[in-house]
Amino acid sequence: MDKILRINMSGSSGPEIKTEPLGPYAGLGGRAMTSTVVAKEVPPTCHALGADNKLVIAPGLLSGSAAAMSGRISVGCKSPLTGGIKEANSGGQPSQMIARLGYAAIILEGAPKDDTLYKVMINKDGATIKPDNSLKMLGNYDLVDKIKAEFGEKVSCISIGQAGEMKLGAASVAFTDMEQRPTRHAGRGGVGAVMGSKGIKVIVIDDAGTAMRPPKDPEKFKAANKEFVAGLRKHPVTGQGLPTYGTNVLTNVVNEAGAYPTRNFKTGQFEGAAKISGEAQAELENSRGGEGSATHGCHRGCVIRCSGTFYDKNGRFVTKQPEYETVWAHGGNCGIDDLDAIARIDRMDDDFGLDTIEMGATIAVAMDAGLAKFGDAEGAIRLLEEVGKGTPLGRILGSGAAVTGRVFGIERVPVVKGQSMPAYDPRAVKGMGVTYATTTMGADHTAGYAVTANLLGVGGSVDPLSPKGQIELSRNLQIATAAIDATGMCLFIAFAILDQPETFQSLIDLINGFTGANLTADDVTALGKTILKQERNFNAAAGFTKAHDRLPDYLLKEALPPHNVTFDVSDKELDEVFNF
Amino acid sequence: MDKILRINMSGSSGPEIKTEPLGPYAGLGGRAMTSTVVAKEVPPTCHALGADNKLVIAPGLLSGSAAAMSGRISVGCKSPLTGGIKEANSGGQPSQMIARLGYAAIILEGAPKDDTLYKVMINKDGATIKPDNSLKMLGNYDLVDKIKAEFGEKVSCISIGQAGEMKLGAASVAFTDMEQRPTRHAGRGGVGAVMGSKGIKVIVIDDAGTAMRPPKDPEKFKAANKEFVAGLRKHPVTGQGLPTYGTNVLTNVVNEAGAYPTRNFKTGQFEGAAKISGEAQAELENSRGGEGSATHGCHRGCVIRCSGTFYDKNGRFVTKQPEYETVWAHGGNCGIDDLDAIARIDRMDDDFGLDTIEMGATIAVAMDAGLAKFGDAEGAIRLLEEVGKGTPLGRILGSGAAVTGRVFGIERVPVVKGQSMPAYDPRAVKGMGVTYATTTMGADHTAGYAVTANLLGVGGSVDPLSPKGQIELSRNLQIATAAIDATGMCLFIAFAILDQPETFQSLIDLINGFTGANLTADDVTALGKTILKQERNFNAAAGFTKAHDRLPDYLLKEALPPHNVTFDVSDKELDEVFNF
Predict the structure, then answer these.
(1) Is B550–A197 a contact, with Cβ atoms under 8 angstroms apart?
(2) Which residues in chain B touch residue A574, judged by CB atoms under 8 angstroms apart?
(3) How many angstroms separate the CA of residue B509 from the nearest CA in chain A?
(4) Is B544 on the interface with A (CB under 8 A)?
(5) Is the CB of residue B389 less than 8 Å away from at least one CB of chain A?
(6) Looking at the domain covering B216-243+426-580, what would its CATH class be?
(7) Of A92, A255, A261, B490, whose Cβ has the fewest other Cβ atoms within 10 Å?
(8) CATH hierarchy code of domain B246-423
(9) In this model, does residue A295 exceed pLDDT 80?
(10) Predicted confidence band of residue A288 (pLDDT cuts 50, 70, 90)
(11) Which of A46, A383, A407 should be substituted to probe chain B, the one whose Cβ sees the most B Cβ atoms within 10 Å?
C-alpha cells in the first residue's frame, strides 16, 4: 500500500488516471485515510454532487495482510445526505484485493462532461477506464453478472445500482462478497450518489499475481494474531452470540429492553419481534438447507462469521442473511413480521444500491404519510419498486427519510443531520442517543455503539434509561471506533477488546508487528481523537454547529412505551462530548 | 392596535382563542412584531411544522391609518423552507382591516389534534373559530367565493390553498385584494405550510363598524402625509415608471444590463424579453380593455398604483397584472415568452397558494432535470397542475427548488438557505448577490434591494459588475428595509426616500405625527439594526453560520454571458455585512 490511484473525470480529453506516491497520506488507512483526504482536498461548502467533491475508497491499515478481521473498507466524501463529512464502512472482498494491489486509496474526483457511464479496471498492471453505456441503469446483481462474464469469476466489484446513477441520497456503494455477489454495502450517507456523480458505474478489481502483504516483524505478528483470534473466540458475543445467530441475535435483546423502535419510532416493543428474531431466522435458514445460518464472514479472513445465506422456501438464493438493522428497518419499524418479505426487500435494496437503514426509516415515514399501512409488506415492496424505476415517488423515497418527511409534510422524522436513526431508540438506549446526536456522521449506530454498556454489559454497565454516564460512554466509544475504522478491522472486535485487556493488547501487537511501529494504547486513542477532530472541523466549516448535534424535537417530548421515557440528556451535556 | 389575538390549536378541548394586551410587544408593527414574537416565543431548533412553531400575522405600525402606502402586512414564523426565521410581506386588504379592529398581531400556535380544518372569523365583536371540513383542498379562488357567499362581499380573507394544506415548502399565505380576489401573497419561505400545520384554512376579517386609526398629532400627520405623497409623485420611479408599466418595467432594464437570469440562470439576457416586458404587457392589457395596465394599488391607500388586471383575449379575468418577478420566474427563467401563458401560471400559483418566485425557479430546475423543455409553456403548466393535485411529482415541485434539485440529483440549483433566488442574477448585480447571501431570509430581493444603486441610479451609483462597494450598499439597504417593513409601508417608497431627503423626513414626520413619538433618522436605523440582530440571533441558534451566508458554488465558477462575470465578492467581505 505505497501508492494512491487518482481518477480525474474532468480531464480535458476525458478521464485521467494517475498513480501517485502516498505523500502526506503515508501511514493512513481506512477512515483515517478517507477523512484526511476529504478534509484536505474537498472544500467543505462545495456541492456534494459537484466536481469539487471526491469519493475516497480506502482499505484499512491491515487490509491485505494475514491479520484476522482486517478486510473492512472505508468510503469517504462530503455526504449528499448530511452535507457533512462521511465515512461509510463495508465488508466484501475488495479491501483485501486493493491492498494486495498496493493501493492505499482510490480517489474519484472531478466531474464527467456528459452522461457517459464508465467502468474502471484495476489489476497488477495498473488501472484503466472505459466508457460502457451498456451498463446504464443495471441493478447491482445484473451488473456483476455482466462483469463476471467479461472478466471471469475471480474479480471483485465496487459498484452502484440505479439509485447511485440517479444520485439519490440513500444510494450505497456495493462491494462483492466471497461468493461475488453484491451483498456488502457502504450504505450510509449517499456515497453511491457521489460515485454516480462521477459517472463511474463499477470498479473491477483483479488481484491475480499479487501476494499477501508481509508483516515487518513476522514472529510478533503471527503470535499476536493467534492471541487476537483466541480472544475473539473466547468472548461470549464474538465467540458465541454472533456466530450462532448473526447480528439479528439483537432483535430479542433490544425488544426486551423496550428499545426496539417500532412503527416509525412510536413504541419500544414490537409484538412480532419473535417472528423475525435471529433465533427464528436461524431456524428458518437451517430448515431450508443450504449452508444454514451464521456460516459466512463478510470478507476473507473473518473468524467471527456472523453472516449466512437466505434461501426462499424453494431453496433459491434470495440474499445474504439480513443483518439486525436491516431486519429492524424493514421489519419492526414498518410493523412487518415476515422474514421472507424482509429478505426480498433486502435483496431489492442491494440490487438498486440503497442503504437498508435509510430505506426502512423512509418507508416508515411514508407509512405515516399514508402511502402504505404499517405491516403491509407488499405495500413496502411496491414503494421500493418505485425507487428502482425512478418514478417521482421513487426518487422521493430514495432521497431518504428527511426529504420524504419534507415532501409529505411529516413532522415525526427520526433523523440527525439528515440521516436516519438505526435500530435503537435513543430514548431507551440513551448512550446511543448521544452518539446519534453528536457523531460527525449523522445518526449512526456504528460511530459509537453504546449498546455495549447500555444493554449488553460489555465494557462496563451504564443504565440505558438514565441520562447519567452516557456522555463519557459515547465519547470513549466514538474515539475507539474512529481508530478501529482506520485499521480495516471489523467493528465487532470491540466486544472482545473492551472486555479483555489481553485481546486489546494483542490488537496493538498485531499493528506493531505488521507496521514495525511501537504504538501504545494511548497512541490508538490519540489516532481516534485526531480523526474525529478533523471530521468536526470539516463539518464546522461546512456550516454545522451545536444546533445540529441534537435529536429531533419530538423525541424530547414524546414518551416511548413501555418505559415511557423521553430523551433527557441535556443540550449542555451533549456539547461536552467533544471536549478533547 | 392595543391587543394581540392568540389562537392556540393545542387547547385541551379544541382550539382556544385569547385576546391579550400587547405587553412586551407594545409599539411594534409588521416585521418588528413578527420577528420579535418569533425570536421570543419559538424555539429556534423546533420543527417548523410542529406545535412549537408559531405563525404571526402583523399589520404595520401605520396600517389602518390614513397614511399613504401603509397597508402592507407581515407574516412571520420559523420557515419550513429555510429552517431560519421568516418574514414574508404582502399587500391586500387585511392589514388595514386588522389594524382598524385593534389587533397588532394574530398569533397561530400549537397543533391541532387531528386533520380537521378550521376557519377563523374576526369582527368588531371579537374572534371565533369553527371546524369546516367542506373547505378541504379548495383553491384560494373557490375558497374566497365560498366565504363571500357565507359572509358577504365586504369581508377580506387570509387563506391557504392546496399547497398550504399539504404543508409544502413553497406554500404561500393569500390575502384578498381590493376586489376581494386572493391575488396578494406572503409568498416566501413556506409560511402557508405553517398555517396549514395549524389546521387553519382561512381567517375571515370583517371591519364593519370600525374607524380609521386616529393620529396622535393630526396636524403634523396630515402635513407629513401630503409632503410624503408629493415626494412619491415627484420621483421618476414611483411617480412614473411603476405607475405606467408596473413592476414589470424592470424586464427590459435588467435584461439590457445582462443580469436577467435566463433558463435556470445560464445566461443574463433573454431573447424573448421584449415580448414579456412591462411595455408589452401594458400594451396587451390596454388593448384588451377593462381597466388596463397599472391602475391598481395592492391595498387601499396606495398612491403609486403599480398593479393592474390581466384579462384573456376574450376579456375574461385571469389574474392581477403579474409582477416583474413572476413574469421572470415563469417567463425568462423557463425560456417562456408568452404573457398569456405566464398569466395563467400566475393564476394557478395564486389559486394553489404558491410562491411564484419559488415555483418559477423550481420549474427551471425541473427543466434542467428533463421534466419539460425550456420554452415549453404547456409543459410548465402541466408540471404546476401536478402540484395542485398533490401527486408525488407535484409535492416535490411544491417543496421548492432545493428539494427538487436533491430529488433529481441536479447541482445547479439557485438557492441560498434553501430559498430560490429571484429575478436578478447575482453575478451581474453583485449588490443583490450580497443580499441573497447574507440576509436572514434566504435568497430574497426585497431584503436589501441593491438594484437601486446597481442598475437604477437610485440612492447613488455602484457598478453592478464590480465587487466594490456592494457590502456597504447591501448592509445599508438591509437595515433600512427592516425598518420600513416594520411600518406597514410598501417597500417601493424606498426609491423616493433614498433620493429625496425631504421625502425621508416626511416619512419620519408621518410616524411621529401618528404615534406622538420623536424619532430621528438615527432611530429608524437603530430599529432596522435591532430587527436584523434579533433575526441573526435566531438563525444562529437554529444552526446557521457564515457557511450559510454563501451563494451556491457554481455561481463563483460559471461565468454569466454576456458580461462573462462570476460572483467575486469574497467570503471575508460577505462576513462583514453584519458588522454592527
Answers:
(1) no
(2) none
(3) 43
(4) yes
(5) no
(6) mainly alpha
(7) A255
(8) 1.10.569.10
(9) no
(10) confident
(11) A407
Contact A299, A328 (CB under 8 A): no
Find the range with the poorest average confidence among A451-465, B221-235, B239-253, B287-301: B287-301
In this predicted structure, the answer to whether residue A297 has a pLDDT above a threshold of 90 is no
Tell me if the domain spanning A3-205 has CATH number 3.60.9.10: yes
Residue B393: beta bridge partners? none
Question: Which residues belong to CATH 3.60.9.10 in chain B?
Answer: 3-205
Inter-residue contact B294 to B321 (CB < 8 Å) = yes
Percentage of chain A surpassing pLDDT 90?
95
Which amino acid, one-letter code, is at B54? K
pTM, two decimals, is: 0.96
**Paired strand residues for B415:** B420
- ipTM comes to 0.94
Contact assignment for B396 to A406 by CB distance below 8 Å: no
CA distance B411 to chain A (A): 6
Question: 3-state DSSP call for residue A334?
Answer: helix
> Which of B322, B94, B100 has its CA nearest to residue B202?
B94
Q: What are the backbone dihedrals phi and psi of residue B307, each rounded to the nearest 5 degrees, phi first?
A: -110, 175
C-alpha cell read off for B48: 417548523
Query: How many C-beta atoms lie closer than 10 Å to residue A124's C-beta?
Result: 12
For residues A516 and B294, which has the higher predicted lDDT (pLDDT)? A516
Q: How is chain B split among helix, strand and coil, in percent rounded to 5?
A: 45, 15, 40
Instruction: Tell whether the model's pLDDT for residue B292 goes beyond 70.
Output: no
Q: Where in chain A is the domain with CATH 1.10.569.10?
A: 248-425
For B10, how many CA atoms within 13 A lie in the half-sphere containing its CB?
10
Helix, strand, or coil (residue B327): helix
Domain A248-425 CATH class label = mainly alpha
**pLDDT tens digits along B349-398:** 999 999 999 999 999 999 999 999 999 999 999 999 999 999 999 999 99
Are B9 and B50 within 8 A, CB to CB?
no
Q: What is the mean pLDDT of chain B?
A: 96
Query: Is residue A289 predicted with pLDDT exceeding 80?
Result: no
Q: Nearest 5°: CA angle at A426, between A422 and A430?
A: 130
Nearest chain B Cα distance for residue A292, angstroms: 40
Please report the pLDDT score of residue A290 as a whole number: 67
